[in-house]
Amino acid sequence: xxxxxxxxxxxxxxxxxxxxxxxxxxxxxxxxxxxxxxxxxxxxxxxxxxxxxxxxxxxxxxxxxxxxxxxxxxxxxxxxxxxxxxxxxxxxxxxxxxxxxxxxxxxxxxxxxxxxxxxxxxxxxxxxxxxxxxxxxxxxxxxxxxxxxxxxxxxxxxxxxxxxxxxxxxxxxxxxxxxxxxxxxxxxxxxxxxxxxxxxxxxxxxxxxxxxxxxxxxxxxxxxxxxxxxxxxxxxxxxxxxxxxxxxxxxxxxxxxxxxxxxxxxxxxxxxxxxxxxxxxxxxxxxxxxxxxxxxxxxxxxxxxxxxxxxxxxxxxxxxxxxxxxxxxxxxxxxxxxxxxxxxxxxxxxxxxxxxxxxxxxxxxxxxxxxxxxxxx
Length: 377
Ligand code: SF4
Hints:
Elements: H1 6-11, E1 17-30, E2 33-46, E3 50-54, H2 61-68, E4 78-85, E5 88-89, H3 95-101, E6 106-109, H4 113-116, H5 123-134, H6 139-152, H7 158-161, H8 171-183, E7 189-193, H9 201-218, E8 221-226, E9 238-243, E10 246-252, H10 253-258, H11 263-270, H12 316-319, E11 325-328, E12 331-333, H13 339-350, H14 356-371
Parallel strand pairs: 3-8, 3-9, 6-7, 7-8
Antiparallel strand pairs: 1-2, 1-4, 4-5, 9-10, 10-12, 11-12
Helix pairs in contact: 5-6, 5-8, 6-8, 8-9, 11-13
């Protein structure tokens, strides 16, 4: 097997990526030592496509997103690697260059809209300001655009709601305002960081539908960050699973659900309730906790929690860092186990017998899990 460069390989495909991340590293100093938040992450996403970045809290998902957006303070943190957005490299660009792209070519929806919207300003004023920062338009035109965007994201009575303050809106409506603000300049890249975590189940589904609808309207490249593999199955084209600052498995969504190989991915999938199993079957949570980013384990970073490590000889799981290797076309896995052993383990763990029929069941189960707001955490 050969060493991959996922982003560069995707570049050669027919769908030219709008965003390519190559070997991104982010480190922060702290009183206790260096926080290794992101350790060599690579991926890419094309316009009109959705990449889901999945992992537990502390896996480096959000820090990766903040680094792409240029929102890491370079005076106190180290950011290395390459981030290419529409042909422009961002890591080596200065703050002013990146600031111009933020909001115009790329935008981010944050998890908690209440802490992202300013409580003292009406939502229309905040939306209008987002437009006027990047375009020379009058206040009246910006207000008209704000009303138009509120309408497009499904806020009822937008002409009245445009003068509301954030606290006058429900959680779902505030999240819609955040989406409107992110999209008001039609950015080609939208990063949605846990956009539905704070919302109830029905609103979660509405927000994901809304992002998908707007994505097809604007032909946006979307990165969906979540800890919940259940919500990914229906909306993502590709999935990158992160653990301890690294991508440990990545593949097109159907391959990842139909043929997961990395034991951590198996653990996430085993934690999702399945409609095709008896209700008496117990979920199989991943034992232990993610490692501290101050002290990542030696060898495979997942080895302290992996129940299959004894199957690899010579204590390699504890001593040798596995590379991310291409197990099959477009499917990359970071694990020392032989491919056939991984497939057998997955088959037993998930009752996946292989083939399209079972794959459909697995995806349906995950989608059903989404409907039930099942979470891997
Ligand atoms: Fe488990 Fe070893 Fe594979 Fe890591 S390399 S996931 S510890 S079997």
